[in-house]
Amino acid sequence: MAKYLSLFDDSKSLDENIITQFFTKSGYLYEETNNLLTQEFRNVSSYSDIIEAISSGANRLNEISDKTHIAQTAVSHALSNLITTGIVVRETAATDEKNKKKVQYNLKDNMFRFWYKYVPNGIGAIELDKGELYYQNAVKPRIAEYMGNVFEEMCRFYTLHSGIMGRLNCYVTTVGKWWGTNPGKRMQTDIDIVGLDKMSKKAVLGECKFKNEPVDKKVYEDLMDRNGLISREYMIVQYLLFSKSGFSEWVRENTDPSLVKKITLQEMYCIENT
C-alpha cells in the first residue's frame, strides 16, 4: 500500500525501517493489523485467530476450524469477509478449478502476512523496548521464510507479463499454481508456477527459489519430474527456473535455453512495462 511505503525513510536502511514500523511500541505498523480489523469487524479476536491459523499453515476450511476451535460455518462466513476486504485469497489448483478438495485460503495482504508471522512472538520484547534485539535475533535470520511466498508472487506476475508480451513459448494469459499427489512417487507435491495458454492448450511450468545458493541440478530435475501432473489437456512447452542467487555451472551448461528459461532476480527487476 502506498501509505505503508510512505512511512519508510529513504535515509535509513531497510532493517531500520522495519524495526521502526513493526518492532517499536510507537511504530505505525505495530498496531495496524488490530486497527484495521477493529474498523472492519466486530469480533476482532475470532478474525485474528483465523488469520493467525492461516499464517501458521492451516489453509483449508476444516484445518482452520480445528486450529481455532471455531465452527466451520462461522469460519466460512469470516473467510468470505476477509476475502472481500483483500486480506485473504481463496485459491484453486490450476487446471483443477472445479475440484472442491483443492481449495486453499492464504493471506493476500503481505503486511498481514509479515505481521502475523513475526510480531506476535515478539510482543513481550517490543513492550520492553527490546524490539530491535528481537528483530536481529529472531526475525532477520528467518526473513527468507517470509520472502519465499512473496517471491513466488513476483514470479507469477513476471510469467503473466512475459506471456502477454509474447516472450514465452506460448501465449500465457492465466497464471497460478498447482498442488496434489505425484502418483509416480506417491507423495504430495506442488508446482510454483503454472502458466496457461487456454486457446492453444499449451502450458509452462516454473520453480521459484529464494535462497542464497544457486539453483542446482536437483531443482531442475524436480521441475522436470512435475511434467504430467497438471491436466493432460495441456502440452508443456517450456520450463521456467527463477532464482535469487543464480544458477550452478551444471544448470547453465546442461539445460536447453529454448526449453528452459532461467531468470534471475536482477532480470525480474528489469522487466519492461511496454
Question: Which characteristics define this entry?
Answer:
7 strands; two-stranded antiparallel sheet; 274 residues; 5-stranded mixed beta sheet; alpha/beta; 19% strand
Written account of the structure:
This protein is an alpha/beta fold and 274 residues long. It contains 13 helices and seven strands. The protein has helices at residues 2-7, 14-22, 32-40, 44-55, 61-68, 72-84, 110-118, 123-127, 131-139, 143-164, 217-225, 249-254, 265-269; strands at residues 88-92, 103-107, 174-182, 187-197, 202-209, 235-243, 260-264. The chain has a five-stranded mixed β-sheet with strand order 3-4-5-6-7, sandwiched between helices. Strands 1-2 form a two-stranded antiparallel sheet. Helix 4 packs across helix 5 (61-68). The protein is globular. The model has no long low-confidence stretch (mean pLDDT 94).
List the helices and strands and how they pair.
Layout: H1 2-7, H2 14-22, H3 32-40, H4 44-55, H5 61-68, H6 72-84, E1 88-92, E2 103-107, H7 110-118, H8 123-127, H9 131-139, H10 143-164, E3 174-182, E4 187-197, E5 202-209, H11 217-225, E6 235-243, H12 249-254, E7 260-264, H13 265-269
Parallel strand pairs: 5-6, 6-7
Antiparallel strand pairs: 1-2, 3-4, 4-5
